[in-house]
## 1
Amino acid sequence: MDPQTTTAPALPARDPGFGIYVHWPFCLSKCPYCDFNSHVRHEPPDQARFLAGFERELGVMAERAPGRTVSSIFFGGGTPSLMRPETVAGIITAVRRLWTVPDGIEITLEANPTSVEAGRFRGYAQAGVNRVSLGVQSLDDTDLRFLGRLHSVAEALKAVETARAIFPRISFDLIYARPGQTPAAWRQELTRALALAADHLSVYQLTIEAETRFEDLWKAGKLAVPDEDTAADLYEVTQDVCAAHGLPAYEISNHAKPGAECRHNLVYWRYGEYVGVGPGAHGRLAEADGRHATATEKHPERWLHQVETRGHGLTVDDLLTAEEQADEYLLMGLRLAEGIDLSRYETISGRTLDPTRLTDLMSHGLAEVTSDRRVRATPAGFAVLDALVADLAA
């Protein structure tokens, strides 16, 4: 089967759209760096029962967000490529039944590049998936073992080849700042990765997250990651190599050819509305009384029991204050190369950004204001983005 050629319908410039996020929480093993809501089960989960749970929770969320036009659906995890294609198809069918879903919208599924999961790709495409995001993570077999990955470089390359033959759009993830990694070695690895002809690449710095195996090793002095200066050099290599290959950074950790940006993630970064269903999923919904932050029960079986009992697994349903919304808009929007819209910030927050702080950041070359009243980080500002956001939000 040839790759699908339909493209997503156009959105107005910088329109965040409305997304649906579906969390599949199961993995074959827990990666030592991962702090996501993922769970290993010795017995496969009852997918028919979980599908019914997803359908029911989607129905409840559709009652709270009626009449929307969906711009993206994203299957994240966990490892969504452990789902049967029939399960994926059932969820997509439910979304189509509950909301307006234009033909050709972006439907992404995260996948691990093992040969068994790659063999399911045709089934996912037939279910409606038109974009796959592969967790490649490294093109070095030794580092893949260190990262706890179950695939080899050869399997990853085969999965990329298979995905390119089936899906119109693919992306894959890489992790840098691994122990002992040098800028020269990273440049070589990243150049090889870009030669795989992906139109989108997510590149994340390895960080020590709380309650992970790597944190235990780090605290015990058995794991050392590159120091701050080396990590900064590796980040610069990432920007240079990706830009030279026609994939500039449109977000601090994401690179794409123009027009190939991940539409679903733009919903988050442009502070749009999105429904989150499944164990541990988060959402943001604009309702009559204001904007709500939602989150569901993280434990898969407890989530399923709650959905079967009361229709949803929500454990958080908070009405956000104007200040909280403004801070979220800054935190998410300044990750983007396009930055934030000052007028929208003022509408959300009911106030202007502190002109003194903004002027100070501009004088130090960390931020700039465009002619259409957008604030964005400069390349130097991206290197200290957390501090920049904290300064503006203060």
Note: The chain is about 40% helix and 20% strand.
## 2
Amino acid sequence: MQYDPIKRSLGKVFNQNPVLRRLFYHLLDLLLLRAWHIRKELRKRSRVTPEVKSILDAGSGFGQYTYRMARWFPKAEIKAVDIKPEQIEDCNQFIQKAGLSNRVKFELADLTQFQENNRYDLILSVDVMEHIEEDVQVFMNFYASLKKGGLLLISTPSDQGGSDSHDHEHEEGIHGFIDEHVRDGYNLGDICRKLKSVGFSKVEARYSYGTPGKISWRLSMKIPILMLGASKIFFIVLPFYYLVVFPFALILNFLDLGFRHKSGTGLIVKAWK
């Protein structure tokens, strides 16, 4: 399935004014389990010295994590980069309206070429690396761009079905629910080895989207996206669908966040320079 057209449709609905945009971010924070895991890790980093003064959001998309980090790290300067010009322009307009343009900036960039030596205390990359073939080159750029002691935080699908490819592995020509991915997901050991190979001194990785998370994702994300992919009329149905599903999704997200999973369809990876 082509995921980007649906994301663009949702963006058009919620990007009409800053209030709707903030509401959209809050909904994403609640529904997207990856956002729960990212918040958990960013809270840990916010409690550790030295203070975070410079942040790179590498593959910023709608800008929800950039906006949240601007709130969580109020003294930090943040650069957010993405390869899609329309999203960069849109996010810069929102950030200006939100009064954050003095320390938050969105720029067009290709992560395979982007490098700013020894500049950032924290680099965040959420659901990006599965879209990039030249991943080792990007890891090299991240390493070079971090200050000594800086942290790289990655959320990406695992090879345990992170692109939902296992549901369709016997169907010719179907490569998974989200077919913009260049790989079906990372092996936990493989991504750690790649990060260490470019110089990272310490790497930690854990699974997200264990059994509770997988169920939550299907209820709160996969089914609604399939509905919207079938017909735009489901925009009318979705609020009623979520009234029923949302409480169950919240409970499942709490469970996924609270347990260490032996396997899962997502990975949370931390690497220190």
Note: Residues 61 and 217 are 19 Å apart (CA to CA).
